[in-house]
Amino acid sequence: MLSADQMTKEGFENNGMDGVVLHEVSHEWFGNSVSPKTWSDLWLNEGHAVFYQDAWIAARGLQSQIERAWVRDHANGIGSTEDFIATASKVARTELGPFLRSWLYGTKLPAMPGHPDWKAAA
Questions:
Q1: Collapsing DSSP states into helix, strand and coil, what is residue 120?
Q2: Distance between CA atoms of 6 and 13, rounded to whole angstroms?
Q3: Counting Cβ atoms within 10 Å, is residue 19 exposed (0-12), middle (13-18) or buried (19+)?
Q4: How many C-beta atoms surround the C-beta of residue 53 within 10 A?
């Protein structure tokens, strides 16, 4: 749950939750408004919400700097997870290996950066 100060323009800029809020609001249009006919159609709810969230993030230039570098550096070739970690770390100007490896290979949900109080559900 976000506090009132986290729901301001400045709060969103600091916590990066604007994309998540946009994702959830998108469900109001592509979920609550149009219900999937069967469970296999559920992707229609998530697909639209993820699309708009990603478009928002790309427009703000947050995620696209890493993605563009990945494609630029590996186009028409091959790439590994370690190559991606190296590219992401280079663009972010910080070592992301431990963080990404814990998400990709860990058996437990790792701590959320910037939110040490968040715990995985048991």
A1: coil
A2: 9
A3: buried
A4: 19
Report which of residues 62 and 105 the model is more confident about: 105
The answer to whether 70 and 96 have CB atoms below 8 angstroms apart is no
Distance in angstroms (rounded) separating the CA atoms of residues 68 and 16: 20
Burial of 17 (0-12, 13-18, 19+ CB in 10 A): middle
* pLDDT, tens only, 32-86: 677 778 887 877 778 788 888 888 877 776 556 787 888 888 888 889 899 989 9
CA dihedral in degrees (42, 46, 47, 51; nearest 10)? 170
Enter the pTM of the model. 0.46
3-state secondary structure 1-50: CCCHHHHCHHHHHHHCCHHHHHHHHHHHHCCCCCCCCCHHHCHHHHHHHH
